[in-house]
Design a protein that fits this description.
This protein has two helices and no strands. Helices cover about 90% and strands about 0% of the residues. The longest helix is centred in the N-terminal third of the chain and has 64 residues.
Length: about 110
């Protein structure tokens, strides 16, 4: 009677607890992966891409100073810099969103 009903209620509560724990673990894992990916992209943008763009601009400026190309070509060489900066801002925003989502999923500030 009453003890089997109490046992059933306890088992149902245990199953809900396990399901909720698994859901939280999954959300934390997914949020952490988003954060890692966003930080990786941000690092690549700040490192490799930005360095390559700056090098191209420096070469264009040197060629312009030597009279080999027009100033318009120098301006064209700077266009990718603005594109990389835009992508960098987007990646930084994504990293902030992922960090906030990870903190929310974990129920505390962990990042």
């Amino acid at each position: 009677g009453a003890s089997s009903r109490a046992e059933a209620v306890g088992e149902a509560a245990a199953r809900r607890y396990v399901a909720l724990r698994d859901q939280v673990e999954h959300e934390v894992f997914q949020s952490r992966m988003r954060l890692v990916q966003a930080l990786d992209l941000l690092g690549r943008l700040e490192g490799e891409l930005l360095g390559g763009v700056r090098q191209s601009i420096a070469l264009a400026e040197k060629a312009h100073a030597a009279g080999d190309i027009s100033y318009l070509a120098v301006l064209e060489a700077t266009r990718p810099l603005h594109e990389v900066r835009q992508r960098e801002a987007e990646a930084a925003a994504e990293a902030r969103r992922a960090r906030a989502e990870l903190d929310r999923a974990a129920g505390k500030r962990i990042s």
